[in-house]
Design goal:
With about 200 residues, the chain is of the alpha+beta class. It contains two helices and eleven strands; from the N terminus they run ααβββββββββββ.
Amino acid sequence: MSKLHAITRRFKALRDEDGITGLETAIILIAFVVVAAVFAFVVLSTGLFSAERGRETVFAGLAKTRGSVTLSGGILATSDQTQITNLTFGVVLAAGGDSVSIDPGASNGRTVISYIDNAITDPDLTYTVTPVVGDTDAVLEAGELMEIGIDLTQNAQIALATNDTFTLEIKPPSGSYLVVRRTTPPSISDTIIDLN
């Protein structure tokens, strides 16, 4: 009988194998789902963040170009027959541009005009603004034309004579700036000279 008892115990030991229950399987499956959800959240958050940064960059670029001014017509120079004394030119907004303050008397947020030639640089020329088309404020808006006048005699170092090349940089408070490069003619005996 003891042999029979030993054989029965042996069969019981073989049948008593531990296995994975349904509860353990569910816990492991839930852990995998949670890890996958966290990973998906991180990937989506990173993608959304980079997409938002790209959107901000595009809008910043558009804002930079939308506030630009452009020349309307040529640059007229006034001469005392020995040198150029005044420059006059018209400006309008670039297509689709936002309004630009060109008030020469403003302390903040005004357009700055710089002068550069092969001898000197003046980072902030004194200028005047005359409305030609539009209202009388010094804010350039869509459909308006403003005339800018620069008295070169206010800076004693600027002496534009014949065959001199100079550059004007018109820098609005926002948007890209306009670079105008001109050369004076071989003769400045006329009082008004078109520098096209």
